[in-house]
Amino acid sequence: MPIIQADIRRGRSARQRDELISELTRIVHEVSGAPVETISAVVRELPGPATYEAGAPSPEYAPGPDGTDLAALAELAARPQAHPQSGTGA
Questions:
Q1: Would the pTM count as exceeding 0.90?
Q2: Which of 30, 23, 34, 31 is nearest to 1 (CA)?
Q3: Which end of the chain has the lower number of beta carbons within 10 A, N or C?
Q4: Domain spanning 3-78 has what CATH number?
């Protein structure tokens, strides 16, 4: 019996959480073959600063008109762009 665990920043609507779990359940069913009725899910909603991205605390979720996370988009735009290193060593 698969168990899906999703940690997300708080602030999403019940509809968004339901849609997330519905889609994840569908994918787990398709990939694993487990019957849908045996797939469980847990969603933990955390304050933004309790999660980290690129080593820095995340902002609180800021929903846009279509559910897009405006805070995350602004944070990504403000990050310095990673540049691939030249050379042969990894």
A1: no
A2: 34
A3: C
A4: 3.30.429.10
H or E segment and range at residue 70:
helix 70-78
Domain extents in the chain: 3-78
Apex 47 CA angle, 58 and 78, nearest 5: 15
Phi, psi of 6 (to 5 degrees): -125, 120
Task: Using alpha carbons, list the distances in angstroms from residue 32 to 27, 41, 56, 67.
Answer: 8, 15, 35, 29
CA pair distance 56, 71, nearest whole angstrom: 14
